[in-house]
Automatic annotation (TrEMBL):
Belongs to the KHG/KDPG aldolase family. Coiled coil: none annotated. Its EC number is 4.1.2.14. Pfam families: Aldolase. This is 2-dehydro-3-deoxy-phosphogluconate aldolase. It catalyses: 2-dehydro-3-deoxy-6-phospho-D-gluconate = D-glyceraldehyde 3-phosphate + pyruvate. The gene is eda. The keyword Transmembrane does not apply. It comes from the Bacteria. Homotrimer. It comes from Nocardia terrae. One of its GO terms (molecular function) is 2-dehydro-3-deoxy-phosphogluconate aldolase activity.
Amino acid sequence: MNPLDISPVIPVVVLDDPGKAVPLARALLDGGIGIIEVTLRSAAALPAIERIAAELPDMAVGAGTILTPAQAAAATSAGARFLVSPGVTATLLQALADTGLPCLPGVSTVSQILTVLEHGMTDMKFFPAESSGGTKALQSFNGPLPHVRFCPTGGITPATASDYLALPNVGCVGGSWLTPDSVINDADWPRIRRLAAEAAALPRATS
Ligand code: 3PG
């Protein structure tokens, strides 16, 4: 399983109620999005990952906002199938590699990309994408580093996603626009399904 190859967009989700996890993930799946990143920014995140992993085997559930080795281990135990971090340290990279799961370590500079490559990983999250140079930065990375693929995330919208997805070194983009807090709070699953269907239809250069 490679998280970059599943859907054009990885929905980046903050959940406060683990009871919403399965209906939310089911709505994304029904809309054609087969992947979800549940960020470890709330106490609900690990139970949410557990429930999605147990009840929706067709959904690739991952854990995001991994900041420490302990969080990498806890997310793995909860059943996460991939791990995402917003940035890197040598310690965190080693912990991510030790899980054996597909990982998207967060980078925004060439030196950070080289550090991740030293740990044997070639797929990364480009974060925060818009404020770190956006598509121009990714085009610049592709000259010396054409073997590295990215999931740009941070400030990407439905209007700008296509520009990123047209790049040869972008597998998919990440974004929170598919799962707005207000829509989750209202349990408006048909709305999530429509947002997912629009995102699933975005064309990719590399698929
Ligand atoms: C992330 O954690 O990856 C970002 O907060 C998501 O960025 P966005 O809210 O700008 O889509």
